[in-house]
Amino acid sequence: MKRKVSQIGPATLMVSLPAKWLRQHNVKKGDEMEILEQQGGLFLRIDSKSNPEILKTSIDIHKLGNLAKRAMGALYKAGYDEIEVFFQSEKEFKIVQITSEDLIGFEIINQRKSSCTLKELSSISDVDFNNILNRIFFLQLSIADDALGAIKDDNWGMLPSLVQRDDSVNRFANYCRRFLNKVGHKDRITNTMMYYIVNELENTGDIYKEFLEYVVTNKIQKIDKKIIDVLELDNKLLRLFYSLVSNYSNDKAIDYTNLRTRIKKNVLDLYDDNQITKSKHNIILLNFLLAISEKLIEMLSALLPIRVAEENLIEKK
After folding, report:
1. Which of 69, 105, 201, 222 could join 122 via S-S bond, C-beta 3.0 to 4.6 A?
2. Which fold has domain 128-316?
3. Contacts of 207 (CB under 8 A, 6+ apart)
4. Which residues contact 138 (CB under 8 A, 6 or more apart)?
5. Helices 225-246, 250-271: crossing angle, 10 deg rounding
6. How far apart are CA 57 and CA 71, in angstroms?
7. Strand partners, 58
8. Are 208 and 140 spatial neighbours (Cβ–Cβ below 8 Å)?
9. How far apart are CA 70 and CA 58, in angstroms?
C-alpha cells in the first residue's frame, strides 16, 4: 500500500498508519513504537507486551489424518495463541494430548465432546530465546557425545534412551521458532537466518536419532573403528558450530570448513574401501554421518550473514 507524506513542521514529515492495521494490533494514542532502518527501508515494530495481539484459529484433525500432529505444531510455531481443535474420536483426542506435551507454554482448556482448545498460558519473554537455544545445543551435544562414548565402550543398551532424549531437542526447537515468528529479533536478516539455523539444528538432531535408531533396530553390536572416527569428527564439527554461534571468528569459521572437507573426504574414501562397503549397514551408517556434516555446513551459510552484518555495524559505530 502507498501512503502520502505530509509536512507538519519546518523539519517534520508525517505518514499516517492504516486504521485497519492499528485496530488489528490494538495501537492507541500515546503508545510507543520502534522504527528500524533496514536495507533502505523502515521497519515499524510495536511493543508486543503493551499491545498483545491474540492470534486464534481452528483446525479439524479428523480431516487431516496423519498430518494432524504436524499441523498443530506448525500453527504453534507460526505464533498462534489459541487453537480450537475438532476431533471425532478418543484416539484423535489422544493425538491432541500427546502433541500438547511438545508445545512449551500451551495447555488444553475447554475440553468438550468433540473439541478442545489449545491455549498459551505462559507467554514468551524477550529473554528466553538465547537460553533455549543454548539448551538445544547442550542437549544435542550431550546426545552426540554420549552416543560416541556408548559405542566406544560397547554400551549398546544406552542407545534407546539417547533416541528418546531427542524429543526434548524438538520441543525446545519448536519454542525457538515460535519466538522468532511471534517476537523475533529487531533485525530482519538475523530473524530469518536464525530461524533457518534452529530448523536445521533440529534436523541434524533427527539424523543423529535415525543413526542410533538404525543401530538399535538392526541390533548392531560392533561398528568399524573408521566409522566411529567419522562420528567423532561430526561431534567435533557440531561443537565447533556452537562455538561459532556463541563467539564467532573468521579463523574458527575457516577451521570449521576445513573440518567439514576432511569429514567428506574420509567418508568418500570409506565408500571406496571394499572391507567397509561389503556390509550394507556400514554404507547406511556412513550416509547418516555424511548427512550430519552437510547439515552443519549449511548452517554456517546462514550464520555468516548475521555475523558479517554485526561486524559492519561495529565498524560504523
Report:
1. 105
2. Methane Monooxygenase Hydroxylase; Chain G, domain 1 (1.20.58)
3. 288, 291, 292, 295
4. none
5. 160
6. 12
7. 84
8. yes
9. 14
Q: State the Cα–Cα distance between residues 75 and 57, nearest whole angstrom.
A: 9
Long-range CB contacts for residues 141-146, cutoff 8 Å, separation at least 24? 141/235, 141/238, 141/239, 141/242, 143/169, 143/205, 143/208, 143/209, 144/208, 144/234, 144/235, 144/238, 145/235
- The HSE-up count of residue 171 (CA atoms within 13 Å, CB side) is 16
**pLDDT above 60: residue 74:** yes
Span 210-259, pLDDT tens digits: 999 999 999 999 999 999 999 999 999 999 999 999 999 999 999 999 99
CATH number, domain 56-120:
3.30.110.40
Domain with CATH 1.20.58.220 in the chain: 128-316
CA distance 283 to 306: 36
How many angstroms separate the Cα of 234 from the Cα of each of 266, 268, 288? 11, 15, 10
* Overall size of the chain counted in residues: 317
Domain with CATH 3.30.110.40 in the chain: 56-120
